[in-house]
């Protein structure tokens, strides 16, 4: 965890998207082949004995590593997207945001009760989006659900873990 090469390559952009936010830009990690390899290796090591069968990538930066992990872990990829982006029948979950609500959805046939699911996104800040994705996946009644992020931000008074019930398996590569 907190691999120095990942930390050196992670870009922070002050006051984006609004004043007072220090945006952690994972695209600098994605464009560096060594960083992608490190992240893939570390994430695969974290879950090597978990029996993961499906990896749910959260729109849109969660798609990158979910695909890389799926190849290495011999798992399928499920896309969790905003409404209207998936072509077949979906189920939805809405959640509160700071200024209103948002909705995410997954194809109705994407996950079965036999699956072991890894939910993946780039960043844990408040936890709202991932909690909605977690609730959505729980409706499929899979054997187990793991939650993973590249970065967890807790140094700015954020506590995204509090959005989840106690006992939820949440793991991150970088804690800030």
Describe the structure.
It contains five helices and nine strands, in the order αββααβαββββαββ. Helix 3 (33-46) crosses helix 4 (62-73). By secondary structure, the chain is an alpha/beta fold. The chain has helices spanning 4-9, 27-30, 33-46, 62-73, 128-138; strands at residues 11-14, 22-25, 54-58, 76-80, 90-97, 100-107, 116-124, 144-152, 169-175. The strands form three sheets. A five-stranded parallel beta sheet has the order 4-3-7-8-9, sandwiched between helices. A two-stranded antiparallel sheet has the order 1-2. A hairpin with a 2-residue loop joins strand 5 (90-97) and strand 6 (100-107).
Mean pLDDT: 95
Indicate the radius of gyration in whole angstroms.
Answer: 16 Å
- Broad structural category: alpha/beta
Beta-strand percentage range = 25-35%
In total, the number of strands is 9
- How far apart lie the N and C ends? 11 Å
């Amino acid at each position: 965890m907190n691999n120095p090469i990942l930390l050196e390559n992670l870009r922070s952009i002050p006051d984006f998207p609004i004043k007072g936010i220090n945006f952690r830009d994972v695209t600098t990690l994605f464009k560096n082949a060594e960083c992608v390899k490190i992240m893939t290796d570390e994430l695969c090591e974290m879950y090597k004995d978990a029996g993961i069968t499906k990896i749910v990538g959260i729109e849109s930066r969660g798609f990158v590593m979910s695909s890389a992990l799926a190849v290495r872990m011999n798992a399928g990829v499920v896309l969790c997207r905003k409404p209207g982006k998936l072509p077949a029948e979906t189920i939805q979950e809405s959640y509160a945001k700071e200024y209103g609500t948002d909705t995410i959805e997954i194809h109705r046939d994407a996950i079965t009760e036999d699956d072991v699911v890894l939910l993946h996104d780039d960043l844990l800040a408040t936890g709202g989006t991932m909690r909605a994705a977690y609730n959505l996946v729980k409706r499929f009644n899979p054997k187990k659900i793991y939650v993973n992020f590249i970065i967890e931000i807790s140094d700015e008074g954020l506590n995204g873990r509090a959005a989840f019930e106690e006992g939820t398996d949440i793991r991150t590569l970088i804690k800030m």
